[in-house]
Amino acid sequence: MTPSHSSAWKAPYLAALIEPDKEKLTKLVHATERAMFLRVQELAGSVDGHQERKEIEVASGNLLTLKSLILGWSSPVPCEP
C-alpha cells in the first residue's frame, strides 16, 4: 500500500468540506466518490485496511449531507426487500 493511494480520496474530500462554490463542490464530490470507490476496491480482502474503511464510511456520510443540504440533491430512498 502506497501513501498516495491510501490518501488519494482525502484531498478532494477535505477540499469539498470547505468549498463554497456549488459547481466546484459538485466536481469535488464526484472526484472524492470516484477515489473512495477505487480505494475500497484496493482494500477488498485486506485485513490492514479496517481503519481506513471506517474513515471512508464516515466521509461518505458527510458527503451525503453535503449533497443533500448544500447541493440540494435528493437523499437516496432505502430499497425495500
Overview of the molecule:
- By secondary structure, this protein is mainly α.
- The chain has one domain.
- The protein is 69% helix and 0% strand.
- It has four helices and no strands.
- The longest helix is centred in the middle third of the chain and has 22 residues.
- The protein starts with a helix and ends in an 11-residue tail after the last helix.
- The model has no long low-confidence stretch (mean pLDDT 88).
Notable features of this structure?
mainly alpha
Question: Topology, please?
Answer:
Elements: H1 3-6, H2 10-18, H3 22-43, H4 50-70
Give the proportion of residues in helices.
55-70%
Helix-strand sequence: HHHH
Query: What structural category characterises the helix and strand content?
Result: mainly alpha
Oligomer: single chain
Uncertain residue ranges: none
Average pLDDT rating: 88
| Strand composition percent | under 5%
CA-to-CA gap between the ends? 37 Å
* Count of discrete alpha- or pi-helical segments spanning 4 or more residues: 4
Shape: globular
Computed over alpha carbons, the radius of gyration is 14 Å
Instruction: Give the domain tally.
Output: 1
Number of DSSP-assigned strands? 0
Main sheet attributes: strand count, strand direction, barrel closure = none
